[in-house]
Amino acid sequence: MEVLKLTTKTDESGCLNLTIPTHLRAVEVNVVLVLDPVSSVEKQELNYDFSDLVGRLTFGGDAVAMQRTLRDEW
Length: 74
Prior knowledge:
Elements: H1 63-72
């Protein structure tokens, strides 16, 4: 099995044409294709300042017990 990752462009009609050389000759293969559009805009930085929430949230339970419960769910 081979995993290939590439970034390419679709043509004006929205078609994607791929020519991918492999070492496999005249065999049947399964192909999985994931289309994930690339944003032309730079990634937006989502830096939120949480300092306004400091001291406002309270937890009345046992933090370690809660962590163990969450971990044991896996």
